[in-house]
Write a structure and sequence with these properties.
- The chain is of the alpha+beta class and 205 residues long.
- It is built from four helices and 14 strands.
- The strands form two sheets. A six-stranded antiparallel barrel has the order 2-3-6-5-4-7. A six-stranded mixed beta sheet has the order 12-11-10-9-14-13.
- The relative contact order is 0.15.
- Binds ribosomal protein uS19.
- Its main location: cytoplasm.
- Belongs to the RimM family.
Length: 205
């Protein structure tokens, strides 16, 4: 889970994403980004919403009316979301909750500033550095500036690709799919090839 220092200097945790309307009474299925759903989605819990600015929910909060587990899925009812139409307007919204300074942090939860600047290591070799974190509806991304070449690489911040985050050692370990880093590194030689061909062409002098 990624935490963030959001508007007003508050520390917040991203705890879920609303993925689908459920039934006709305003319930929503939630994809959890927390190890303690019962402790986060208690009655009266208030969430800050990350939604597009054009959304009628922009700048508003959601308050939990009821939390259930139904057929293995987490389902939440919120105040003022009374029917399926209202629920569908909240699909893809990301839920953030204020972090209590006295609260023990959850496992695998980091603030953006803790991740920014970390070395990115693959197969024991430093291949870049984290320059920022982006929070998208589907997942978080580590934006990496590679050690070789220009540009930026978007690395999905999921355990399958980023299995290790070691804040004390100042690094993250990545196991990216083939091509994620190589494609960018190959751009420079590819761009230089036409110039080399021009120089070797007959009559180029």
């Amino acid at each position: 889970m990624v935490a963030s220092e959001r508007a007003g200097g508050r520390n917040q945790l991203r705890v879920g994403r609303l993925v689908k309307a459920h039934g006709l009474k305003g319930a929503l299925k939630v994809e959890l980004y927390t190890d303690d759903p019962a402790g986060r989605f208690f009655v009266g819990a208030a969430f800050t919403l990350q939604v597009p600015e054009a959304s009628p929910w922009h700048g508003k909060t959601l308050v939990v009316r009821e939390y259930r587990v139904m057929n293995g899925s987490s389902v939440v009812f919120f105040d003022d979301v009374e029917d399926r139409t209202a629920a569908e307007g909240l699909v893809k919204a990301i839920l953030w909750i204020d972090q209590d300074d006295a609260e023990e942090p959850e496992d695998d939860a980091w603030y953006d500033h803790q991740l920014t600047g970390l070395e990115v290591v693959r197969d024991g070799v430093v291949v870049g550095r984290v320059v920022r974190v982006e929070h998208l509806p589907a997942q978080d991304l580590l934006i990496v500036r590679p050690s070789a070449g220009d540009g930026e690489i978007m690395v999905p911040f999921v355990s399958a690709i980023v299995p290790t985050v070691d804040i004390a050692a100042g690094r993250v370990v990545v196991t990216p799919p083939a091509g994620l880093f190589e494609d960018l590194a190959d751009e420079a030689p590819a761009a230089a090839a036409p110039q080399a061909a021009d120089q070797d062409a007959p009559g180029a002098d």
